From TrEMBL, chain B:
Any GO CC annotation of this UniProt entry: plasma membrane
Membrane topology: Multi-pass membrane protein
Transmembrane segments: 6-23, 28-47, 67-91, 98-118, 124-143, 155-175, 200-223, 235-253, 268-286, 293-314, 320-342, 362-380, 400-421, 433-452, 472-496, 508-528
Name of the protein in its database record: Proton-conducting membrane transporter
Record domain NADH:quinone oxidoreductase/Mrp antiporter transmembrane: where: 120-393
InterPro entries: CPA3_Na-H_Antiporter_D, ND/Mrp_TM
Principal location listed in the UniProt entry: membrane
Subcellular location: Cell membrane; Membrane
Keywords: Cell membrane, Membrane, Transmembrane, Transmembrane helix
Family statement: Belongs to the CPA3 antiporters (TC 2.A.63) subunit D family.
Species classification: Bacteria, Bacillati, Bacillota, Clostridia, Eubacteriales
Length: 115, 532
């Protein structure tokens, strides 16, 4: 039973929670948070999907056991950096929108923009 | 052969250095750099055409470990197209008021990223490049800081980030299933699989993201916002619509190739392409804003290209690829001329602009050449690619589908081109030399691509696609008949109909776009589970 709760299933669940947030929430901040959740789930997926129990980090002395795959880790460091950049950029834009229109709802924003 | 890395890094490095120089100097440096890039791209193209595919690994690692750049004929042609269009855009821009160092920097970075996207051979690299390009483009979209621009830019940024999350999760699943993220590693690993079961889910994730980048049917609603936004300078609209959207189609071609041995979705995307084309022209006809007409027109043409790519017929595939090149030229010409017309008349409403032909003759000639290209008029470039796309469809429903799409294209183009005629009180305007030359040359290219169509396909892609003069003549007659029907339909009952004014309010909100993205993903997944 407990085997079912591993990194992969949790990450896929998290990914779809993020999508639920994007579809159901009208608040821009919540949309940005949902994207953050999706990014975290992707990072969890990459790291845990190829995990071998008891493996050692791929540096230093490699003789004492199976070595963990370094590629997903390298990719995910890049993804974390990109994620930070994207979140920062979207929050900056949100601040501008809020100053200009005084709302954080997608619907009200769209109505005001069309005028 | 010049190192592929340089053609990617050169625009970024030079633009970064020119940031410290005064704008009067740096804009000429950028122009010189663009000319150098055209020369480099042409040398590489010539090399690849003679010697075949070039595979280059970065750092001295063996090619299965390192990051590789791969230049084949399609990739080098796309690179050549990119640098030529960017040269045109930079020249067009030289006397604009909004031009400053930041704009030139972002613009050149975008060029480097697009070139890298075409040469990249690794899905994670593609992901990184698209993410960075998304941020750069959303800044460029709101460059003039008009009132609507921030909303447009933010919508563009968030929708594309969500789509790329789908892409990255798909790449992760693919890595788990196959152990590679290299496009050609994937191709060989997929061909060794016994069944497609393990790669259906990653494929569905990846193709959903790619369909959004290519603006397929339910996923296109970000495109007109981004490409037709009033705040973006018209060069940005031209680059986005003429070129950047093609990177989505290019990725689609690559990914379909990589998965071709196990997954066949050509029928699905053929129908999707048809629906995209039809919805695109209906919405284009409904618009009043001239930039939005052109932006929805892009959606319609994307559908046409998609149909061509998925008919599994050698002529249609090359026709679609040639249409990518043609579309880049005529759509850039149209967007640039539209920008000049908007600057002159200070309005974007197609019903208020009249008499462009008298006021701006050169602009009008370039524009009309491009229009003849879009509609596939005989002797212009669109006719050759549409002829080739139609060639493979004879006898199926798609043949009539293509005629219907062309009729739709003609209807919205009739609406667009009515602004060239009519009375105008204004005097002949004095527009600057660079802009006139650029749009005129782009217009002429549309013509040259048509009369030398067969030769230019052979020159660019090294394949012979014979055009039968008799069949081509028949197509010309069909075109003229369609043109009359189109004019009749538009002036007969569309011009005063209420139906259009209801449609032009159509726009999906952010939540709805995310919903359609998820629905598209689920639908693709179910389709794949049933058919494979």
């Amino acid at each position: 039973m407990m085997d079912f709760i591993n990194g992969e299933t949790v990450s896929i669940l998290l990914f779809f929670i993020g999508i639920y947030g994007l579809i159901a929430k009208r608040n821009i901040i919540k949309s940005i948070i949902s994207i953050g959740i999706m990014q975290a789930s992707i990072i969890l997926y990459f790291i845990s999907a190829n995990y071998i129990a008891g493996s050692i980090p791929p540096m230093g002395d490699l003789s004492s056991g199976p070595v963990a795959d370094p590629l997903p880790q390298a990719l995910m460091i890049t993804e974390i950096v990109i994620g930070v950049g994207i979140t920062a950029a979207s929050l900056t834009m949100f601040i501008h929108i809020f100053h200009k229109y005084g709302t954080s709802s997608w619907l009200k924003l769209r109505r005001k923009r069309l005028k | 052969m010049i190192d592929l890395l340089w053609i990617i890094l050169l625009p970024i490095i030079i633009a970064a250095f020119s940031m410290i120089l005064p704008i009067k100097l740096s804009k000429y440096i950028i122009v010189i750099m663009q000319i150098c890039l055209v020369i480099i791209a042409f040398i590489n193209f010539a090399y690849v055409r003679v010697n075949g595919i070039v595979l280059q690994s970065i750092g001295d690692w063996p090619s299965n470990v390192s990051i590789t750049l791969r230049a084949d004929l399609l990739a080098t042609v796309m690179v050549l197209l990119t640098v030529i269009l960017f040269l045109a855009m930079v020249l067009y821009n030289t006397k604009q008021k909004y031009l400053n160092n930041l704009f030139l920097f972002l613009f050149s970075v975008l060029e480097g990223l697009i070139i890298a996207l075409f040469l990249s051979n690794d899905l994670f690299n593609v992901f990184v490049l698209i993410e960075v390009a998304t941020v750069v483009i959303s800044v460029l979209i709101m460059f003039k800081k008009d009132s609507q621009s921030i909303y447009d830019g933010m919508l563009y940024l968030l929708i594309n980030v969500v789509a790329m999350s789908f892409f990255l999760l798909g790449v992760g699943m693919l890595y788990k299933a196959l152990g590679v993220i290299d496009l050609f590693g994937i191709e060989s690993a997929v061909s060794r699989l016994d069944s497609a079961d393990s790669i259906i889910l990653p494929y569905a994730f990846i193709i959903t993201a790619v369909s959004l980048k290519a603006a397929l049917m339910p996923l296109f609603s970000w495109l007109p916002r981004a490409h037709g936004t009033p705040s973006a300078p018209s060069v940005i609209s031209a680059v986005l619509s003429g070129l950047y959207v093609k990177s989505g189609i290019y990725l689609f071609i690559r990914i379909q190739d990589a998965f071709a041995s196990q997954i066949d979705t050509s029928e699905y995307f053929l129908i999707m392409g048809f629906i995209t084309a039809v919805v695109g022209f209906i919405l284009a006809t409904a618009q009043k804003d001239i930039k939005l007409i052109l932006a929805y027109g892009t959606v319609s043409q994307i559908g046409l290209i998609m149909m061509g790519l998925n008919m599994n017929h050698i002529e249609t595939t090359w026709g679609a690829i040639y249409h990518i090149v043609n579309h880049a030229f005529f759509k850039s010409a149209l967007f640039l001329t539209a920008g000049m017309i908007i600057d002159e008349y200070k309005t974007r409403d197609v019903y208020k602009i009249r008499g462009v032909f008298k006021r701006m003759p050169i602009v009008s000639i370039a524009s009309i050449f491009a229009i003849l290209g879009v509609t596939g008029a005989p002797l212009f470039n669109g006719s050759i690619s549409k002829y080739l796309i139609a060639y493979g469809t004879s006898g199926s429903w798609a043949e009539y589908g293509l005629l219907f799409i062309n009729l739709g294209t003609i209807i919205y183009i009739v609406k667009y081109s009515q602004m060239f005629f009519g009375l105008d009180t204004g005097i002949r305007c004095r527009s600057d030399f660079y802009r006139n030359t650029v749009v005129f040359v782009l217009g002429i290219i549309c013509f040259i691509g048509g009369i030398f169509g067969e030769k230019s396909i052979e020159f660019l892609f090294d394949v012979k696609m014979p055009v039968d003069p008799l069949l081509y003549g028949t197509k010309a007659i069909i075109f003229i008949i369609t043109l009359f029907i189109g004019i009749l339909i538009y002036h007969g009952f569309l011009i005063n109909s209420k139906f259009l004014s209801k449609l032009n309010k159509f726009e999906l909100s952010f939540n709805e776009v995310c919903l359609t993205l998820t629905l598209f993903f689920s639908f693709t997944l179910v389709y794949l589970k049933i058919t494979q």
